[in-house]
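Quarterly update from the structural biology core.
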Amino acid sequence: MRTRAWGSMVTVLTTVALGIGLGSALAAVTITVTGSWSQTVGASNLASGAGSNLSNPVASPTDQLSIAVGSGSGSGSGNSHVTVQRVDTGWNSNLNIYVQMTSNNGTVSGGTAYLLVTTSPQTFITEKGNPTVGVQVKLDGLSLQVPPGTYTTGLLFTVIQP
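Predicted structure, tokenized:
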């Protein structure tokens, strides 16, 4: 009888990006991202016990990440766009990471549905009024076909103010 131990760890790190102001009067724009998420995948993730595949998806708690957007003038006159992209440092291409806004304390549009995060920047939310936004992370693509190992990626959030 052969027994195979299967285990994998997935780590999602956050990376704080720079703020970009466009136009003739450049305002200081800031973004602060806090939080991280790590998920260990093992026997407890089997869908129906031994011989079955892994359950999908796996999600972080709500508000696992926090994004605070601000401007130097404090006016919040923005309509700033917050983009997100993946920065892989050891990632398996069968795994997918999604983000979704789970709370906010400002005027925010977008982000209410899960967004597949790719290696290219894409708009996550549009904000006005310097909000703080809670974010949930979801992992999909777990399978016994993904070799055991540690897979790590970062989420790069950037605020762009017109």
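The chain has a mean pLDDT of 79.
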